[in-house]
Design a protein that fits this description.
single chain; 5-stranded parallel sheet; Rossmann-like_a/b/a_fold; alpha/beta; binds adenosine-5'-triphosphate; 5 strands; 207 residues; nucleotidyltransferase; Rossmann fold
Protein backbone atom coordinates (compact mmCIF):
# COMPACT_ATOMS: atom_id res chain seq x y z
CA UNK A 1 0.00 0.00 0.00
CA UNK A 2 1.18 3.54 -0.77
CA UNK A 3 0.53 5.75 2.22
CA UNK A 4 0.89 9.51 2.62
CA UNK A 5 1.62 10.86 6.08
CA UNK A 6 0.38 14.41 6.46
CA UNK A 7 1.76 16.01 9.60
CA UNK A 8 0.91 19.48 10.85
CA UNK A 9 -0.57 21.52 13.64
CA UNK A 10 -3.95 21.74 11.91
CA UNK A 11 -4.85 24.74 14.06
CA UNK A 12 -7.44 24.45 12.54
CA UNK A 13 -7.70 22.12 9.54
CA UNK A 14 -8.77 24.07 6.43
CA UNK A 15 -9.54 23.53 2.75
CA UNK A 16 -5.88 24.01 1.79
CA UNK A 17 -4.97 20.84 3.69
CA UNK A 18 -7.92 18.92 2.25
CA UNK A 19 -7.52 19.96 -1.38
CA UNK A 20 -3.78 19.31 -1.33
CA UNK A 21 -4.18 15.89 0.32
CA UNK A 22 -6.81 14.87 -2.23
CA UNK A 23 -4.81 16.19 -5.18
CA UNK A 24 -1.56 14.53 -4.08
CA UNK A 25 -3.30 11.26 -3.33
CA UNK A 26 -4.73 11.09 -6.81
CA UNK A 27 -1.70 12.43 -8.73
CA UNK A 28 0.78 10.24 -6.85
CA UNK A 29 -1.35 7.12 -6.78
CA UNK A 30 -1.50 6.89 -3.00
CA UNK A 31 -3.99 4.52 -1.43
CA UNK A 32 -4.53 6.58 1.67
CA UNK A 33 -3.47 9.69 3.52
CA UNK A 34 -3.03 9.67 7.27
CA UNK A 35 -3.38 13.07 8.94
CA UNK A 36 -1.11 13.31 11.97
CA UNK A 37 -1.81 16.33 14.16
CA UNK A 38 1.17 17.40 16.22
CA UNK A 39 0.95 17.35 19.97
CA UNK A 40 3.44 19.96 20.94
CA UNK A 41 5.12 21.52 17.90
CA UNK A 42 8.60 22.87 18.75
CA UNK A 43 8.40 25.75 16.26
CA UNK A 44 5.00 27.13 17.27
CA UNK A 45 5.53 27.75 20.97
CA UNK A 46 4.26 31.31 20.86
CA UNK A 47 0.89 30.69 19.21
CA UNK A 48 -2.53 29.98 20.65
CA UNK A 49 -3.11 26.35 19.76
CA UNK A 50 -6.49 24.77 20.31
CA UNK A 51 -6.56 21.75 22.52
CA UNK A 52 -5.04 18.74 20.83
CA UNK A 53 -8.09 16.54 21.30
CA UNK A 54 -10.24 19.21 19.61
CA UNK A 55 -7.80 19.58 16.68
CA UNK A 56 -7.91 15.80 16.32
CA UNK A 57 -11.70 15.78 16.44
CA UNK A 58 -12.01 18.57 13.88
CA UNK A 59 -9.77 16.61 11.48
CA UNK A 60 -11.91 13.53 12.06
CA UNK A 61 -15.03 15.50 11.15
CA UNK A 62 -13.42 17.19 8.15
CA UNK A 63 -12.26 13.93 6.56
CA UNK A 64 -15.23 11.75 7.51
CA UNK A 65 -16.66 11.62 3.98
CA UNK A 66 -13.40 10.55 2.31
CA UNK A 67 -12.68 6.81 2.57
CA UNK A 68 -9.01 7.41 1.63
CA UNK A 69 -8.35 9.76 4.56
CA UNK A 70 -7.56 8.73 8.14
CA UNK A 71 -6.34 10.52 11.25
CA UNK A 72 -3.82 9.12 13.71
CA UNK A 73 -3.24 10.39 17.25
CA UNK A 74 0.33 9.10 17.52
CA UNK A 75 1.90 12.52 18.10
CA UNK A 76 -0.80 13.48 20.60
CA UNK A 77 0.21 10.53 22.73
CA UNK A 78 3.89 11.37 22.52
CA UNK A 79 5.35 13.17 25.49
CA UNK A 80 7.49 16.23 24.75
CA UNK A 81 8.00 17.71 21.32
CA UNK A 82 7.04 15.85 18.15
CA UNK A 83 9.69 15.52 15.46
CA UNK A 84 9.02 14.31 11.93
CA UNK A 85 11.92 11.85 11.89
CA UNK A 86 10.51 10.12 14.99
CA UNK A 87 6.99 10.12 13.59
CA UNK A 88 8.17 8.65 10.29
CA UNK A 89 10.21 6.00 12.11
CA UNK A 90 7.11 5.09 14.10
CA UNK A 91 4.94 4.74 10.98
CA UNK A 92 7.62 2.86 9.08
CA UNK A 93 7.40 0.19 11.79
CA UNK A 94 3.62 0.35 12.19
CA UNK A 95 3.09 0.05 8.42
CA UNK A 96 6.23 -1.89 7.58
CA UNK A 97 4.87 -3.24 4.30
CA UNK A 98 3.82 0.20 3.00
CA UNK A 99 5.65 2.73 0.87
CA UNK A 100 5.47 5.87 2.99
CA UNK A 101 5.53 9.48 1.78
CA UNK A 102 5.63 12.49 4.08
CA UNK A 103 3.62 15.41 2.67
CA UNK A 104 4.79 18.99 3.17
CA UNK A 105 3.93 22.39 1.72
CA UNK A 106 6.65 24.31 -0.14
CA UNK A 107 7.04 26.63 2.87
CA UNK A 108 8.58 23.70 4.76
CA UNK A 109 11.09 23.09 1.96
CA UNK A 110 13.00 26.18 2.97
CA UNK A 111 13.19 25.34 6.66
CA UNK A 112 13.49 21.57 6.53
CA UNK A 113 17.27 21.77 7.07
CA UNK A 114 16.65 22.80 10.70
CA UNK A 115 14.30 19.90 11.45
CA UNK A 116 15.70 17.28 13.82
CA UNK A 117 18.31 15.07 12.07
CA UNK A 118 17.30 16.63 8.74
CA UNK A 119 19.91 14.90 6.60
CA UNK A 120 19.25 11.44 7.91
CA UNK A 121 15.47 12.07 7.78
CA UNK A 122 15.57 13.10 4.10
CA UNK A 123 17.78 10.22 3.11
CA UNK A 124 15.63 7.67 4.94
CA UNK A 125 12.17 8.85 3.98
CA UNK A 126 10.28 10.03 0.89
CA UNK A 127 8.78 13.51 0.74
CA UNK A 128 6.04 14.93 -1.46
CA UNK A 129 6.01 18.71 -1.73
CA UNK A 130 2.88 20.74 -2.46
CA UNK A 131 2.94 24.19 -4.06
CA UNK A 132 2.34 27.09 -1.74
CA UNK A 133 1.81 30.79 -2.41
CA UNK A 134 4.82 33.00 -1.57
CA UNK A 135 7.07 29.95 -1.66
CA UNK A 136 8.01 29.53 -5.30
CA UNK A 137 9.98 26.41 -6.06
CA UNK A 138 12.61 27.75 -8.42
CA UNK A 139 16.24 26.88 -9.09
CA UNK A 140 17.61 29.92 -7.21
CA UNK A 141 15.69 29.25 -3.99
CA UNK A 142 16.52 25.56 -4.23
CA UNK A 143 20.21 26.29 -4.59
CA UNK A 144 20.12 28.31 -1.37
CA UNK A 145 18.85 25.44 0.78
CA UNK A 146 21.81 24.45 2.96
CA UNK A 147 21.68 20.72 2.32
CA UNK A 148 23.88 18.37 0.28
CA UNK A 149 22.93 18.22 -3.40
CA UNK A 150 21.88 14.59 -3.34
CA UNK A 151 19.32 15.34 -0.62
CA UNK A 152 18.09 18.44 -2.43
CA UNK A 153 17.68 16.35 -5.56
CA UNK A 154 15.69 13.83 -3.61
CA UNK A 155 13.35 16.58 -2.37
CA UNK A 156 13.12 17.97 -5.88
CA UNK A 157 11.90 14.63 -7.16
CA UNK A 158 9.05 14.84 -4.65
CA UNK A 159 7.68 18.13 -5.95
CA UNK A 160 4.09 17.74 -7.09
CA UNK A 161 2.32 20.16 -9.39
CA UNK A 162 -0.60 20.85 -7.06
CA UNK A 163 -2.93 23.84 -7.33
CA UNK A 164 -1.89 26.87 -5.26
CA UNK A 165 -4.49 27.26 -2.53
CA UNK A 166 -3.96 30.56 -0.77
CA UNK A 167 -5.32 29.52 2.63
CA UNK A 168 -3.41 29.05 5.86
CA UNK A 169 -4.44 28.41 9.43
CA UNK A 170 -2.89 31.80 10.27
CA UNK A 171 -5.25 33.43 7.79
CA UNK A 172 -8.25 31.62 9.29
CA UNK A 173 -7.27 32.71 12.82
CA UNK A 174 -6.68 36.30 11.69
CA UNK A 175 -10.00 36.49 9.90
CA UNK A 176 -11.88 35.21 12.96
CA UNK A 177 -10.10 37.75 15.14
CA UNK A 178 -11.00 40.52 12.70
CA UNK A 179 -14.66 39.44 12.66
CA UNK A 180 -14.42 38.34 9.02
CA UNK A 181 -16.16 35.32 7.55
CA UNK A 182 -14.35 32.00 7.21
CA UNK A 183 -17.21 30.41 5.29
CA UNK A 184 -15.84 28.12 2.53
CA UNK A 185 -12.28 28.39 3.90
CA UNK A 186 -12.99 25.50 6.27
CA UNK A 187 -15.64 22.76 6.03
CA UNK A 188 -18.98 24.00 7.32
CA UNK A 189 -18.97 21.75 10.41
CA UNK A 190 -15.57 23.16 11.40
CA UNK A 191 -16.79 26.73 10.93
CA UNK A 192 -19.82 25.99 13.14
CA UNK A 193 -17.66 24.45 15.83
CA UNK A 194 -15.16 27.32 15.87
CA UNK A 195 -17.94 29.91 15.98
CA UNK A 196 -20.04 28.16 18.61
CA UNK A 197 -17.02 27.81 20.87
CA UNK A 198 -15.65 31.31 20.23
CA UNK A 199 -12.31 29.82 19.24
CA UNK A 200 -9.57 32.24 18.18
CA UNK A 201 -11.82 35.21 18.91
CA UNK A 202 -9.89 36.42 21.87
CA UNK A 203 -6.61 34.79 22.70
CA UNK A 204 -4.41 37.60 23.85
CA UNK A 205 -3.51 38.83 20.38
CA UNK A 206 -1.07 36.07 19.51
CA UNK A 207 -1.49 34.34 16.18
P1 LIG B 1 -0.07 28.08 10.13
O1 LIG B 1 -0.63 29.17 9.25
O2 LIG B 1 -0.65 28.06 11.52
O3 LIG B 1 1.44 28.02 10.12
P2 LIG B 1 -0.68 26.09 8.10
O4 LIG B 1 -1.92 26.52 7.42
O5 LIG B 1 0.61 26.29 7.39
O6 LIG B 1 -0.59 26.70 9.56
P3 LIG B 1 -0.04 23.52 9.24
O7 LIG B 1 -0.98 22.71 10.04
O8 LIG B 1 1.10 24.12 9.94
O9 LIG B 1 -0.94 24.60 8.45
O10 LIG B 1 0.44 22.73 7.96
C1 LIG B 1 0.63 21.38 7.86
C2 LIG B 1 1.23 21.11 6.51
O11 LIG B 1 0.31 21.51 5.49
C3 LIG B 1 2.53 21.90 6.22
O12 LIG B 1 3.41 21.05 5.50
C4 LIG B 1 2.06 23.04 5.35
O13 LIG B 1 3.07 23.49 4.48
C5 LIG B 1 0.94 22.38 4.58
N1 LIG B 1 -0.08 23.34 4.14
C6 LIG B 1 -0.92 24.06 4.90
N2 LIG B 1 -1.72 24.82 4.15
C7 LIG B 1 -1.38 24.58 2.87
C8 LIG B 1 -1.85 25.08 1.58
N3 LIG B 1 -2.80 26.02 1.50
N4 LIG B 1 -1.25 24.60 0.46
C9 LIG B 1 -0.26 23.67 0.55
N5 LIG B 1 0.23 23.16 1.70
C10 LIG B 1 -0.33 23.61 2.85
Amino acid sequence: MRTGIYGGTFNPIHIGHLIIADDIRIQCGLDRIIFVPSGNPPHKKDQFIIDQSIRYDLIRQAISDNPHFMVDDHELNTKGYSYTIDTMSFFSIKYKDDDLFFIIGADCLYEIHVWKDAESMISRFNFLVAQRRNNPIDEESFKAIPLPNNLKNKLKQGIVNTPVIDVSATKIRDRIRQGKSIRYLVPESIRNYLEENNLFQNNGGVS
